[in-house]
Specification:
With about 180 residues, the chain is mainly alpha-helical. About 65% of the residues lie in helices and about 5% in strands. Among the domains are: about 50 residues, no CATH class; about 70 residues, no CATH class.
Length: about 180
């Protein structure tokens, strides 16, 4: 130990507040260093004089309870000010908020066109229809009935494309606004 460390602990040593392993290291330094040894002797002498002249007076119960209450309240407040408590609590709060933002969003009602794409693209076998050949209006009506049945689509969708493509097969390939092109 160096002189600075010993000087900081001399009063604790004189009053008997130093644990045994540290006390031994301090006393070894005091025996080898003259100035630290003299200071320790003076501090020890003062401590003995004060202890000899001091008298103990009992503390009134009310005052003791008030002091204990104030000390316990201060300890509770200080315990929350320690980073070991509030840093993990803050990290947990941030994680909970992030999860709430990521997974707590309500799902939107899908648009009819999006439901059309989902139904038609989802099952390749259902993409082909048995259209009435030669009558484009009946073919469109057949397609509309299938959409109503497959995805509960109640409104009529206007389709782009010519009637020949409708007769070959029906597959939604392009969405522009609320209109679908058929091939």
């Amino acid at each position: 130990m160096n002189c600075k460390e010993v000087q900081e602990r001399i009063e604790e040593l004189a009053h008997g507040f130093v644990p045994a392993p540290e006390e031994h290291a301090l006393k070894v330094h005091l025996l080898s260093c003259g100035s630290c040894g003299q200071r320790y002797q003076w501090v020890e002498k003062m401590a003995l004089e004060i202890a000899g002249k001091a008298t103990r007076h009992p503390l009134p119960d009310e005052l003791r309870r008030a002091i204990e209450k104030d000390l316990s309240r201060g300890a509770a407040i200080k315990s929350w000010l320690r980073p070991t408590l509030w840093v993990p609590a803050a990290a947990l709060a941030v994680a909970v908020l992030a999860l709430a933002v990521l997974f707590g969003r309500p799902e939107r009602e899908s648009l009819p066109v999006a439901r059309v794409i989902q139904a038609v693209v989802g099952d390749y076998q259902r993409q082909w229809f048995d259209f009435r050949r030669g009558d484009p209006e009946l073919a469109r009506a057949d397609l509309q009935r299938w959409l109503e049945k497959a995805i509960d689509l109640e409104e009529e969708l206007p389709f782009k494309g010519n009637d020949e493509f409708l007769l070959l097969g029906a597959r939604v390939v392009e969405i522009s606004g609320r209109q679908a092109a058929l091939l």
